[in-house]
Amino acid sequence: MIEQPALVLMRFGENPMQMRARLEALIDEMLDGQLMLDEALAEFEKLYIQKALARHKEHLSRTANVLGIHRNTLSKRVSTYRKQEPHPRPAKKSTARKR
Fold it and tell me: How far is the C-alpha of 66 from the C-alpha of 72, rounded, in Å?
């Protein structure tokens, strides 16, 4: 059974109209920034998973259970996100001689 959006929003203890207004404002910002739907969905999913992992102290099985996905699916997505992160460049060693 698919829940109605208002019922889902009520589960979070927030007035559905307040949450809807916040979501609409965020969507307006994203549209103004010309963010494509696939980019918006990918970014939402990534942040959602990262927040869930943080809440569950990086415990994959618990986090996957809360998200309603298989642990292997979560593991693959986390691995993908980590590969996308920019890696800091190592500092260059100084070639100047000390006297």
Answer: 14
Beta strands in the chain (DSSP E): none
pLDDT in tens, 32-41: 999 899 999 9
Q: Cα separations (Å) of 69 from 39, 45, 86?
A: 21, 12, 27
CA distance 40 to 42: 6
Provide the token pair at 66.
């809360």
In the structure encoding, which two tokens stand for residue 78, read together? Answer: 């986390």
Query: Which residue type sits at 60?
Result: L
Task: Choose among 2, 32, 6: nearest CA to 19.
Answer: 6
| The pair of three-digit structure tokens given for residue 76, joined into one six-digit string | 């693959």
* Other CB atoms within 10 A of residue 30 CB: 16
| Tokens representing residue 84 in the block | 């996308």
Average pLDDT value for residue range 5-25: 73
